[in-house]
Each structure stands twice: as C-alpha cells, then as structure tokens.
Amino acid sequence: MLMPFLRKTFTRALCGSMAIGLAVPLFALLAVPAGFAQAPALPAFQATDKSPNFKDGKVLLEERRIRAYSYLGGDENIIRQTLQRIVRQEGDAPGGWVYEWSVLGKYYEGRGDTLLETGQRRPALNAYMTSNVYYALAWFPRINSEQEAKAYDAQLRVYQKGGKLFEVPLELVKAPYKDGYITTYLHKPFGVAKPPLVIWYGGVDQYKANHWRPIQDMLAKGFAVATLDLPAFGESRQWPPDTKAEANFAVLDTYMKREDIDTKRISFFGQSYGGAASLRAALRNDPRVKAIVAMCAGLHLGDKNSLAPEAKPGDKLINGPLLVANGTRDTGNPVPDLVSTYQSAKEGDLWLLGRGEHCAVEYWPVMIPQMADWLKEKINK
C-alpha cells in the first residue's frame, strides 16, 4: 500500500498551487557546478534498447545490486516493487526507469523538508539520505542522458541538504584539476580536532554521494572522509578517464594544505574502478599516502590489461601498506589476481569475503569497521 500512497502524495504536491512557489528555489538548487570545463552534450533520454538496465526488453537489476542499495539505505521491498512497474528506460512518465526512482527520491526529499520545518533534525536527515539512495538509482548505472543528469543533480542537492544536518556539517572542498576543479565532499568526525583522512572514490556507478552508509562507520572510528567523482564520471564527467591517478593526487595536494586534517595520516580507498585508481596511485609510491585500500580490484599482473605492464606476479612494486579485499566469486577480479596483487606490496594484506561477488557489499557492515581498524594500525606506525 505504500507505493500508491507515495505516488498520490507526490502528485498532489506537484499539482497544487504550491508547486509554482517552489519552482524557483528548487531550480536554483539543481545547479551544482563541476568546474570550468563543460561536460559533453547528452541526448534528452536514453533509449531502452541501449540501456544496461534492460535485457531482452525486460528490466534488470542484479540481486547483488539490490543488496547493495538496501545496505546503502533503500528499502528492499520498495526496490522490488518499483522494479515491477518499470517497463522502459526513457520518458518522464510512469513506467520509466528515471521517473519511477525519482518519484521516490522526491517523496522522501519532501518528507525531509517537512520534518525539518518542525525541528525534527534526525528524522529529516534519515529522510534525505533515503531520498539520496533513490535518486542514485534514477541515474544508475551511468549518466547517459539529460534526464539522468538531472537525477544526479537532484541527488547532490538532497545530499547537501542532509549534509547541513550532519554532526559536523558537510563541507564542499574544491581541488584544482586541469582546466577546472574537482568538488569533493568532506565528512568530519565529531569531537576530533585533527582527524586522519581517507580520500574515498567509488566505481563507474558509485559516485561521491553514494557512500554515506559506510562513511558512518569510518566517522565512528575517528576518520575524516573526502569523497570525489573520478574523471569521466559523475560531476567530473567533463574530463576523460584518468589512467595515471592524477586526480587522486590533485585532491591529495589540496588536502595537504589544510590545518584541520592530520596531513601525516592520509590514506586512499577505492572501490571497483576506484580500486584500480587506488592501485595506480599505490604504484607511484608517494610517501604522503600512508596506506591504500583496493576494494574489488586487482593489478592483473601478466595479463593484457595489467596496470603494471612490465611487471610479473611476484614482483614487489608497492612500498606502503596495501589492503586488497573482495568476494571470491568476482569473475573480473578472480582470487589468483587478488593474491598476486597483495603480494606485490612489501606490506600487503588480503581479505577474501566468503562467497561474495564483485565488491561483496553484504559483508561491508562487518568489513568497513575492521578496515578502519586496519588503517588506524597502519597509519599510526
């Protein structure tokens, strides 16, 4: 009964006279500039037959994705119910992928606004972060149309709304990069004067506003976390892919100048495509980076896609502490590759997460706090 209620509530809100009064401030909030460079033009909509969200004309969201978005804060039952209503990718009407997820995002965003007006800060934050998850699903798995770009703008808007309610309010920190800047989201733990920092980046379908849930575990351990979109993705999609970890170090350079961060204890965390970025950074052996986590990624040594083409399994390539973690059923990063990757570090650790698939998010509620302890041990040496 919840879904018809959501649709009815949201439709009433848009059709009433209040919609006119809300139009200007909401539109103003949509614009979140990414830098001086401009992202390439996109089609208005992505065609269903070209969308990875459909296979043989039917909507598709893998079970591991449903588990992941439930972990991030979505409701599994609502996710499954919504999938049953989706029949196409394109179009701003019922049955469209972006439309259906955006309806949920707007509902919970409105709920957050109402709760905040009555002074209920924590429930408002929870509503905003729930909204954030559904907006993330609206543009998943990548921004390929103007409609999906607007959904991402909406996600950033609601994340920043929620960020004002964090124990330490969210800070937007801009890092100069090429002809513009990369906007990072800085999360700081309450009551810690100069916390150690983890610079955190996700994969091709997990952008900087997707990580609130695991970040809570990092904050609880006393870490600050700065999230970013790597070049070619999210708010950094105006640039081509970065194969030399230049963006990672551009962000590092910016945070090294801050006095509210312990710049002698900075680490990198990367997930999936971001894990490969972490490994590229690790290969540079920059002494400013005290430890690196490569989540669901490998060096692929000896393979045609190797991140170190001249190296072979058994070579010691990475000086600093390296943690490699992944499920054992990830065909793109099989266990032998994970083994040779962690063995490439002079101080390496490997965590195999049961029968998990790529990134094994179902293990994160246990793994992330333990990973924070691992980082703390390494950076305090």
Describe the structure.
The structure is a single chain. By secondary structure, the chain is α/β, with parallel strands linked by helices. It folds into two domains: 2-17 and 44-163, de novo design (two linked rop proteins) (Up-down Bundle); 171-379, 3-Layer(aba) Sandwich (Rossmann fold), CATH 3.40.50.1820. It has helices at 2-15, 18-30, 63-72, 76-85, 97-117, 121-139, 146-163, 212-220, 246-255, 273-283, 335-343, 364-379, and strands spanning 54-55, 58-59, 171-177, 180-187, 197-201, 224-228, 266-271, 289-295, 318-326, 345-352. The strands form two sheets. It has an eight-stranded mixed beta sheet, sandwiched between helices. Strands 1-2 form a two-stranded antiparallel ribbon. It is globular and about 55 Å long. The N and C termini lie far apart (55 Å).
